Protein: RNA methyltransferase
Organism: Methylobrevis albus
Amino acid sequence: MSDPVKFGGAVHQVTSLTNPLVKNLRALQMKKHRDETGLFLGEGLKLVTDALEEQWPIDTICYAARGRQEARVMQTAAAVKARGGMVLEVNEAVLGKITRRDNPQMVVGAFRQKLTPLSAVRLAAGDVWVALEGVKDPGNLGTVIRTVDSVGAKGVIIIGETCDPFSLEAVRATMGSLFHVPLVRTGIDEFLGWKAKAGVRMVGTHLSGTTDWRRIASPEATVLLMGNEQSGLSDRFAGACDVLAKIAMAGHADSLNLAIATGVMLYELRRDVLVV
Ligand code: SAM
């Protein structure tokens, strides 16, 4: 059995749900506390190793006491400690409370929030970014980030009133891709001003689009613009697009889920680059 003290300095062993460290981590379930601290929660060993790989700042990790038997958990804890993060050894009850899960994963971390400024986004030929107008569902947002990562697109821009990309639900749905995909948060005017100057093609997706979704692949730098779950793409945004594409629909559903539609479009845009 590895000894937690081995990896340098104090490993706090915590079993009380009322411990202030635990209370602080639990409070990260609330947006207000995330905003105040600039931190967010993420679960699972893979997520922590993804963050370490990208040199992403990690504030704290907690691992279940049974993790002591797992070399990968102990190595990860040691790496977090070496980078100045706090390491807590906790029991299942504490892990369950922090993550609000009955069967929590063995590791949970608190990470520092990080966004890319829109002014830093520059597209080269062939690059694809996804822009989401007013995305509201954290599961959709996380799934889009994961899909962008999967197809080798470059990043995600969220525009206007959106859900919090750092909520536990959104982070969970990214499956660690949040640490690999640059994320921009911006306002409507700022985004449209940027687009006007950026020299990029903007492909919007719209149920009234007239371009077949299989005709959009291009070597041009492209921003794929997706609409809100309820109201779709606003007129203002639709008017700013160079192309409005529609994905054919055959059955009774009137639209696809946002994340599914994004996946279909991304695989078309990246069709010539992606090989198995
Ligand atoms: N009632 C909304 C509307 O009228 O657009 C439906 C929005 S849909 C759930 C969310 C987003 O997914 C849309 O704004 C669009 O970006 C994309 N989308 C969904 N189905 C699509 C389709 N068949 N063709 C093009 N885009 C689609």
Q: What stands out?
A: The longest strand covers residues 58-64. The pocket of S-adenosylmethionine is lined by residues 205-207, 209, 226-227, 229, 232-233, 246-247, 249, 255-256, 258, 261 (CB under 6 Å). The chain is about 35% helix and 20% strand.
